Amino acid sequence: MCFHSFFLFFFFLLSLFSIPSPARAISFVAPIDKDNSTLLYSLTIYLKTPLQPTRLHLDLGASFTWVDCDTDYNSSTYQHIPCASPLCSSLGHNLSCSNCFKPPSPSCANDSCSLFPENSVTRKTAISTALTDSLALPTSDGSTQGPPILLPTYIFSCSPPSLLEGLANNVTGLAALGRSNYSLPAQVSNSFSVSRSFALCLPGSTSDPGVALIGSVGPYYFSSQKIDVSKSLVYTPLILNPVGSTVITYAGEPSDEYYINVTSINVNGKPIQINSSSLTVDENGFGGTKLSTATPYTVLETSIYNALTDAFENESSALNLTVTNAVKPFSVCYSAADIIITRVGPGVPTVDMVMQNDDVFWRVFGSNSMVRIAGEGGDVWCLGFVDGGVNPRTAVVIGGHQMEDNLLQFDLDSNRLGFTSSVLLKGTTCSNFNFP
Ligand SMILES: *[C@@H]1O[C@H](CO)[C@@H](O)[C@H](O)[C@H]1NC(C)=O
Ligand SMILES: *[C@@H]1O[C@H](CO)[C@@H](O)[C@H](O)[C@H]1NC(C)=O
Ligand SMILES: *[C@@H]1O[C@H](CO)[C@@H](O)[C@H](O)[C@H]1NC(C)=O
Ligand SMILES: *[C@@H]1O[C@H](CO)[C@@H](O)[C@H](O)[C@H]1NC(C)=O
Ligand SMILES: *[C@@H]1O[C@H](CO)[C@@H](O)[C@H](O)[C@H]1NC(C)=O
Ligand SMILES: *[C@@H]1O[C@H](CO)[C@@H](O)[C@H](O)[C@H]1NC(C)=O
Ligand SMILES: *[C@@H]1O[C@H](CO)[C@@H](O)[C@H](O)[C@H]1NC(C)=O
Ligand SMILES: *[C@@H]1O[C@H](CO)[C@@H](O)[C@H](O)[C@H]1NC(C)=O
Ligand SMILES: *[C@@H]1O[C@H](CO)[C@@H](O)[C@H](O)[C@H]1NC(C)=O
Ligand SMILES: *[C@@H]1O[C@H](CO)[C@@H](O)[C@H](O)[C@H]1NC(C)=O
Predict the structure, then answer these.
(1) What pLDDT does 250 receive?
(2) Where is the Peptidase A1 domain (predicted)?
(3) In terms of Cα–Cα distance, which of 286, 331, 287, 338 is closest to 309?
């Protein structure tokens, strides 16, 4: 609560003075919360005039931010984007121009440039007016949160309230973090001339927020001991998928999602059998490995899933672990009583995603591979990967649970992903950023 009043005070000051963008390098920070029912993540930013804290579904691969403009949208600074404007044409190749016969409102205007907001969890879409309005984000030196800075013309679109179905109860829209020039980090970087780089540290807890750091390549300090986790980053190139897979496809446009070149998956250091052609993105956009916040658990094409679970069971049996009744959607579970807990979670075989060479791998420890399920049926730890069927568009979709308490840096200036593996190994967590 004091968090809010503290910042409302700054916003009050901001509303009195217009603050020029400072010359020295700055970066921005926003808390990330995990919803305990949908297991999805949200980002809290400040929108409108006067500024309102606004909780948006965090979508790593989306192109445009959208907000429900029909429920309590009250702002003195919103503007529609005229169809004939250069901004409207720069927003994309497949836009529509709309007219409206209801009373004027954020979601209703004539000659208004429109976009197709999408819900990537339900894969539903709509057509809604594009808007600009004020956005503010607290600044950061990588260590703690400083005063906020205003971006007066943040570009996003409205959405009907129904597009929120399937997301966490609390959110009023979606924050796009994809490769598009109009994603949230892209607009922040373009407006303030800071590096086109952002870092995500998804919380493993539903009660303590993690953090997004926008416009900085580090340092990223966690805990009171100021542990700089950027020192642990290992890099792999970001791959471009030439064909997008949004509901409304923009003909000939590449995907705004983040793909990496996983070349093998090892269990306890031993490669599992995978048809390597499925790990390559083909000319139609099929295959390969992407990161996604639209799925709570990593989804694997069936033959990869079977190879992983077989190898995992085999390696676990060498640790005297015997599988017990499976709990859906998982198929490999162990009695919690048989599992030893280490500082990186349950002591189970490691799963490595190996990239461009054998020295570059993202190690997944028990805290990120296993899911605790306690209920009437017993108390078990299950291998937290799910079967994506025989012919999914993407062979490996790395989901939320596998990314938690790992810091991920999306550096579009260098076109690479930096990853730390579990920050629990460094004695910290993603919930240890020093929010005031
Ligand atoms: C989820 O969180 C809400 C609000 O913090 C709480 O009321 C609810 O009991 C929690 N639900 C579960 C299943 O933990
Ligand atoms: C919108 O905000 C203005 C000024 O803060 C206020 O006077 C007005 O009542 C608000 N309208 C609604 C519908 O909340
Ligand atoms: C759009 O134009 C039509 C025709 O001129 C008019 O009836 C309507 O009220 C206008 N809509 C808005 C939102 O101004
Ligand atoms: C909704 O968000 C508020 C803070 O904005 C939080 O206190 C509350 O616990 C959240 N409710 C749920 C169900 O997550
Ligand atoms: C990206 O957006 C900025 C404004 O945010 C604009 O100045 C620039 O021209 C855009 N670049 C491209 C390639 O569309
Ligand atoms: C625009 O998108 C629609 C729906 O996907 C598609 O039918 C149409 O061909 C696209 N138009 C252009 C010019 O890309
Ligand atoms: C992915 O890695 C493989 C094996 O090193 C390599 O042959 C391939 O060219 C890489 N793909 C891309 C898109 O970099
Ligand atoms: C590997 O997969 C490709 C298509 O994904 C298929 O054409 C090929 O036959 C497969 N190879 C083997 C050995 O299963
Ligand atoms: C099963 O595990 C044993 C012991 O770690 C290992 O020697 C063997 O190669 C594994 N077999 C398979 C199919 O993974
Ligand atoms: C597994 O169990 C056998 C027999 O009880 C024992 O000899 C062996 O040391 C155990 N191995 C591990 C890794 O605990």
Answers:
(1) 62
(2) 41-420
(3) 331
